[in-house]
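The material for today's practical consists of a large collection of protein records. A record pairs a protein's sequence with a compact description of its fold. Instead of coordinates, the fold is spelled out as a row of discrete tokens. We will come back to this pairing of sequence and fold again and again. Here is such a record, shown just as it appears in the course material.
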Amino acid sequence: MNSVNFYHLKNSNTYSVLSKLIEKALEQEEQILIRTGSSTATNEIDEFLWSYDLSSFLPHSILGDQESTFNSIHISNEFDNPNNAQFFFVINTGNVNSGEILRFKRSFILFNDDDLDILEFSQKLWMELKNKSVERKYWTQEDKRWVLKES
């Protein structure tokens, strides 16, 4: 069964949370696709993953890279999946639909309170997926820890 995890960030940097989740996904040896809402966000995540930790980095490709089919992590604001990812990260964007999400083994929807449109989109997506054959979990931050609010 497919699973979708909604992460409602309250007091953490989105990219920091993303990097921790990606590290855990890579431990499972899965290909990863990160969907952003713009080329600016794609470039920001690209830069962040190369430099977020002084002792390591997360090798990846972005939209337009020639070798994207060979990378475990691909970042894009387009509807592409060149590395045949099974783990799908959606970062502060409504540039996704429930049908697309259902094609992935696991999806991670990360959003915060900064953009009311994305917050509303995430709530609608949660309801849309309710009647689908998918496991849903809604996580929120409380005092710097993740709490499962609904499943």
Notes: The longest strand covers residues 134-142. The chain is about 30% helix and 30% strand. The chain has a mean pLDDT of 91. The radius of gyration is 15 Å.
